[in-house]
Amino acid sequence: MAKKRAATKPAAKRRAKAKPSRRPRRDVTYVREDGERFSFSSTMPLLPLRDVVIFPGMIVPLLVGRPQSVVAVERAVANEAPFCVVAQTDPGESEPLPEDLHDVGTVVRALQVLRVPDGTLKILVEGICRVAVTRFDELPDHLAVKTKLIEPSLKSTSDTKARVRQVVSAFRKYVKLNPRIPDEVLTAIGGIDNPRLLTQMVWFKFKLDLSVR
Fold it and tell me: End-to-end alpha-carbon separation of the chain, Å?
């Protein structure tokens, strides 16, 4: 049975700049490995991503053009709050519904936001932490999610470090066989000694299925 999708609103209304709403209660606190503390609401705006997965600690540029996504980002920025990014199960879906999205995402904060003349946004985001999505909410002008924090499980042990070295060794061979990945990537991972961050960097560069990442 075909999915029923809401009628598209007039462009003028879609492009209206989001106004600050009452700031949500920040009921989650996360302390990153570098000691930086983040407080945010477990319920937050959602930005669906077509073909990318953002891991904690990564800084990634994004182009946001879909009306609901623009509102979601502007809502979060207006409230000086993080928002959630979740990968779509089908990157080709232009108007994703909750059933078109994975149930694990990443809380991110916007480092830069630039609104271009056509109404789209160029943003630079930093991943904060991984979350499980426990509920999707379809609001009138954007999507939102209820989330639960996923605590990092990869500890820095001798066994973990040995396994990470194996992964890095395999990745080095992969880079040599793939001319699309610059050699600078190897230099970058060579300067990372945190097992979790190193593994995430490798996963980000590998063309793995989105559900695996």
Answer: 30
